[in-house]
Amino acid sequence: MKILIIIPVFLLSGCAFLNDSIEAYLMKYDTNEYKIVTEIRYEAHLNKQNCQDTAQSKSNAIALQNKTNFFMMFTQHLPHDRDIQIASVELDKMAKGLVDRYNSGQPVSAVFCKIKFENIEQNAETIQKSTGSKPR
Amino acid sequence: MSVHDLEIQLSECMGSNSDTTKDAAHQAMQYTDMYKAGKITKEEYVELMEDIKHSANINQAMDDMQYLQNLNLAINGLVNLASAV
Predict the structure, then answer these.
(1) What would the pLDDT profile of A72-126 be if each residue is shown by its tens digit?
(2) Residue A18 touches chain B, beta carbons under 8 Å
(3) How far is residue A132's CA from residue B45's CA, in Å, rounded to a whole number?
């Protein structure tokens, strides 16, 4: 009886839908993934308050990018996790952008530093929300 | 295309039905104003505009994931329904 209900649903749809269905069915919540992205969000939240101190901010930016880079590598080979993989690459690019500014040798304004950390915080929260709502 | 033309285009995007497009346009306007006011340098302005693209990609990926999660709910619903029959 199960098959009579489920099979027509897939037959009426295309291969892409079938792939999506498999991906959706196998996608699972990962505690470590959720923890890392929460740490990124929390650190960015704390770091944005220290932008007046350039030396401290540079060191904070490097530490945060190490974490976004770790997050990217952590998700890289997890099966059925393609959307988080895409998002982690983008988040790492954002964090790298700030480190690159500090490494350029040109002065980095506190306004820019605060906005960058805010952007990372907001996007980490977006990813955290999606990661947290994955099926258990 | 002049800066003025691009600003008009951004204003039009702010009237979009999509929240993501509206937020991106609002951010772009905000950064442009800050750059014009001399609060951020040209390099910083370019970097912040790049962030808007990264955010859009993240939002897109998370929207796709939301679709998969809804699909997961539907599949499990169908399985439960079929089991109950």
Answers:
(1) 999 999 988 999 999 999 999 999 999 999 999 999 999 999 999 999 999 999 9
(2) no
(3) 33
Helices A2-11, A15-26: axis angle to 10 degrees equals 130
Interface residue B66 vs chain A (CB under 8 A): yes
Q: Is A5 in contact with B81 (Cβ distance < 8 A)?
A: yes
Q: Hey, what CATH class is A29-132 in? A: mainly alpha
Nearest CA in chain B to A116: B48
Q: Give Rg (Cα) of chain B.
A: 20
Q: What is the pTM of this model?
A: 0.84
pLDDT of the residue at A16? 66
Q: For residues A89 and A91, give the distance between their C-alpha atoms in angstroms, rounded to a whole number.
A: 6
What is the DSSP code (8-state) at residue B39? S
Amino acid sitting at position B20? T
- Domain ranges in chain A are 29-132
Parse chain B into domains and list their residue ranges: 3-84
Q: How confident is the model at residue A3 (pLDDT cuts 50, 70, 90)?
A: low
How far is it, in rounded angstroms, from Cα A39 to Cα A42? 5
The pair of three-digit structure tokens given for residue A43, joined into one six-digit string = 């650190």
Q: What is the pLDDT of residues B14-42, one digit of tens each?
A: 777 778 888 888 899 999 999 999 999 99
Q: Which residue, chain included where needed, has tokens 């912040």?
A: B48
Does the beta-carbon distance from A133 to B69 stay under 8 Å? yes
